[in-house]
Amino acid sequence: MTTVSFDPASADFGQLVQPHRVHRRIYTDPQIFDLEMTRVFAASWCYVGHESEIPEAGDYRATTLGRRPVLMTRDRDGSVNVLLNRCTHRGTVLAVEAGGCAKRFVCPYHGWTFAPDGQLLAIPFPADHPVEDYSTLSLGRLATASYRGFVFATLNADPEPLECWLGEARDAFDTIVDRHPGGSIAVMGSPQLLEFVGNWKLSWDNAADGLHATFAHESYNTLGEKVDTETVLARDPGSTPMVSKALRNGHMVVDQRPGIPQGPWETMRKVPFREPMEYALVNAGHAGLLNLATGSMVNLSLFPNLLFVGNQLLVIEPVAVDRTRLQLWLTSAPDAPGEIDLLRLRVDEDFVNFGTPDDLDMFERVQRGLSIPEMEWIDMSRGLPDGSVDGDGSTIYGPITSEAPQRRYLAHYTTLMTTPAVTRAR
Ligand code: FES
Ligand SMILES: [Fe+2]
Description:
Layout: E1 21-23, H1 25-28, H2 30-42, E2 46-50, E3 59-65, E4 68-74, E5 80-84, E6 99-101, E7 105-106, E8 113-114, E9 120-122, E10 143-147, E11 150-154, H3 162-166, H4 169-178, E12 186-187, E13 192-196, H5 201-207, H6 212-216, H7 218-222, E14 243-246, E15 252-255, H8 274-283, E16 298-302, E17 306-309, E18 312-320, E19 323-332, H9 338-354, H10 356-369, E20 377-379, E21 396-399, H11 404-417
Antiparallel strand pairs: 1-20, 2-11, 3-4, 3-6, 4-5, 7-8, 8-9, 10-11, 12-19, 13-19, 14-15, 14-21, 15-16, 16-17, 17-18, 18-19
Helix pairs in contact: 8-9
The protein binds FE2/S2 (inorganic) cluster and fe (ii) ion.
FE2/S2 (inorganic) cluster (FES) binds at residues 87, 89-90, 92, 107, 109-112.
């Protein structure tokens, strides 16, 4: 048995991620986790929040970029800032509540006051403090860009433009947004928070895993009438015409639509209040909108922290090498009849209650299994050799049971982890 040991920041890191197998250390080594927080989470574009969460000037939301606390704020001129949530006096985190509206941020420690764009406005008893230029003590800023209302930020000193980083993933992104009337999608209220005792990449390994549903979600599959559904939860996922795509930059897509030609609503199982709401929508001439109540059937995963699952956004927050928090945000269709959003609530709480616990249980079991040092490797060879590749080499297609998406995102991850990253606040 070989034992892989080296400095996590060295080029030898590549030994840990081979085409057909992955070493347990990338899920269990705290030093590797610490390096990920800079080379993956600080140096890549990460999803921070949706513009609909901060509609008014002064609105803000506190979240994390990896483990770095950040604030997304709406300025008086309507622009969106992403700032480091860290007082420039002695480092106190300014806002600990999830969000709110504030004309200014007053540090609770010694009262330094900052504007929503991060500028230092005031220091108490300034005569004692030899600061001549307040602009040198603004909050740290991140490079910030939006796509279709979704806000991304990075500490990379020289990031590629957001649209290039999204690349081929924009097709699926547009598909998900454009099906909402007027292309208008919003994020509802506050997220449901889930935590599991496991590494954050376990949620990535699972995001495009079309095989596990047959086994891990067996109880969900047998619950309800439509056991023989042709959705991704089909009993024989190897025979479905659904496809998975492994894209550039670690992004992944599972397109379930080829497996459900009759449309997603037809596969919908019973949920509370389905009948009266369906009746109301059909009677009002909105039968064509029923498919909006279910997910787009295109699962898009944007590496490293945003998954589109059904009508939810799942945001991955790494907490420690063996602890991960998941934010589940329900999205609404503001320009559709209200019954659609009520149905979306019912549909989305279904899988979260009866399916998601299976996934979390599997993640925790994997993490426990990976704690055994004498068993070093994880097999990732299903579906090799990888399927067809687009002309520019940007996309690998395969059946949904292939582990090609996992191989592809881990190859991108390895590139990030072996490339020294220059990160800085602006
Ligand atoms: S640490 Fe913020 S004002 Fe002192
Ligand atoms: Fe699952």
